[in-house]
Design a protein that fits this description.
The complex is a heterodimer of chains A (about 500) and B (about 170).
Chain A (H helix, E strand, L loop, with lengths): L13 H23 L7 H25 L1 E5 L2 E6 L5 E6 L3 E8 L1 H6 L1 E8 L8 E6 H26 L7 H13 L2 E5 L2 H9 L3 H26 L1 H5 L3 H6 L3 H27 L3 E4 L3 E6 L4 E7 L3 E7 L2 H6 L2 E7 L10 E6 L1 H11 L9 E4 L2 H25 L7 H19 L2 E4 L3 E6 L5 E6 L3 E9 L7 E8 L2 E9 H17 L6
Antiparallel strand pairs in A: 1-2, 2-3, 4-5, 4-10, 5-6, 7-8, 8-9, 9-10, 11-12, 11-17, 12-13, 14-15, 15-16, 16-17, 18-19, 19-20
Chain B lengths: L24 H15 L4 H9 L4 H28 L1 E4 L3 E6 L3 E8 L3 E7 L2 H5 L3 E7 L7 E6 L1 H18 L1
Antiparallel strand pairs in B: 1-2, 2-3, 4-5, 5-6
Helix pairs in contact in B: 1-3, 2-3
Classes of the chains: A alpha+beta (about 500), B alpha+beta (about 170).
Chain lengths: ~500, ~170
Amino acid sequence: MLDLQTPQRQSKKVILLYLFKSIKGLLLYFLFAIFGTSSFGEGSIYIMGFTFFLAFVSLINPIIKYWFFQFHIEGDELILQKGLLQKERKAIPLERIQSININQNLGQRILRIVSLEVETAGSKAKELEIPGLDDSYARQLKDLLDGRKQQQVAASDTDLEIPETTDEPELTTEIPHSQAKESLVMELGLIDLLKVGITQNHLRSGFLALGVVFGFWYKIKDLVEALFGDVMEGLTWDNMISSASLGLMTTALLVFLVVSILLSLITTVNKYWDFRVIKRADHLEVRMGLLNKREVKIPLSKVQILEFHSNPLRRLLGFKTALIFQANSESQKASNVSIPACTPEHQEQLQDIIFQETRQAPLMTLASNPWSHARLNFYIMSVICVPLAILAYWFEMYWGLAVPVVLLISSCFFAYQYGKFSFILKEADFAVFKTGWLFPKEMITPTYKSQAVEKWRSIFLKRRKETHFKLHTAAGSRGLRYLKEQEVDDLLNAVNNQVISSQASWM
Amino acid sequence: MMTNQTIDVPQLPSVESSSFQKHPKRFLNKKLIAKTLLFIPLLATVVVPFFAVEEEPWIWKVALVLWLVLLLLTIFMAYKEYFVRGYVLREHDITYRKGWLFHHQTTVPFNRIQHTEINHGPIDRMFTLCELEIFTAGGSSSDLSISGLDPVDAQKLKEYISSKTSTYA
């Protein structure tokens, strides 16, 4: 059993991790110092001195960091202490701990250590992190914290309701029993991952890669120019562009596409490798990752919204991406989990696990007015298209008129289709938003978890008797535009009355 | 003795049938004055061309017309807005509506309110007004801020809401 009464340090391997981090941060500087100082003449001595000083500090600092990072449990609180000059002490009441995650990035993987992340309601995730623990130690600590937390909660519950039947041994036997009850909800094999990768948004990964390349180039540009100045002189943008032909352009475009697809395949496999969802007593555990391992715990009561996204390629393969949104003070992205490749059976299973109630036929169906979507799109796109058309007309390039006309008509068509396939369904226990045509989304939230309901409209919609609807939950707001006012009023009142009369806790 | 009466769905309470409480008249005055004050620094765009570019007098004339139109538009909107702004306090929830160009109506049940706050800035104090803020867990998008309340009313509202929310906590 772990001894946490006295302050504990992390695994000694974490020194190497800190060292790796500080060297990584200063790598460019050291490169500069090695190659660039010769041009400084007399000043180079000082620069060399400063470099050695920095190197020394970055060697010593990890040891200091390791030595002064301590954690232990004091009473009902987990205490983290760190820092030599600027001392920090954090106390986290055990009952406030929302979830405990174990993560592992590449560096930690090599060193065979993991980081333990403690999440509380309304904390910035990174602050409560113990970055270097041995795997088995971290798991024991996690179980210990989980157990202590449940004892706390159970104790405070029994204080209120049944003060008699609190035998210590009974409690301790109960906790392992409930934790042992676990079942595998889904896991993804390599084939599934490749399917997911192929149906990713390739353009996004392509542009992301371009961004990274340019960012990196910008960083090392000076260094490279200093070293290979003569070779680089001939290679300027002007030269490159002037020598580019149509053939070259198409090749570049093809290369870009192939690289994009490859990249999304690689990133998908890396991100979702060995993906599995496990259901335990009152939470879902999601594990994934090849180089960076991620393990997320989702307490079921914290889930506010479940979404299913799709796109034309995914529809062909018959699966959707599920997104789980948890309650959070700031919309932290880290605790929202996406589950790729959900077959219809998986979707149903997820719904049943996350929400206790089953879905029923809708009591109300609110349809969005597609013409209003098209009209708004027409106004917005006109701002771009009309000047384009005028320009084309002015310079007598009449073929150029086709571009804005096609753009305007097609975008209006898409907006119309979006509206045509968008609905709000009010079921007995759920509010469901279905939006989109080519990229359909389905958003499901239990009605009683709603925080506030809102309707809004611009003055121009008043005489059309149309209005927009918004449902605010603790995990963000969802809404749909251009609904009939009377129907929205009914929906607002129905949701609101249900929230008022519900005794269930939204978190 | 347990009762379980049938309830006719159209008989369930709806927000639309309740009458909205208006803000005090001096809130309108405050809004109008504050908006006008906001436009005084913008007069510089008229005054500067008037003295600086003497050979092209049309510039400052256009600027003046623009300034006047914008000022009138803002004042008109602030005036219109006052009459659609209001709140309803019911047994279990509070509803607030505001905005003329973009009209919003938000309903927050008391069992979802986290805490409330009363703020008053310097201009608010000149008009003996204050702002009641109601926070939910839904983030800033679902928080209500009822500005332009009489301080006594605001205090009463706050106490009523706190007494209601504490019964749920």
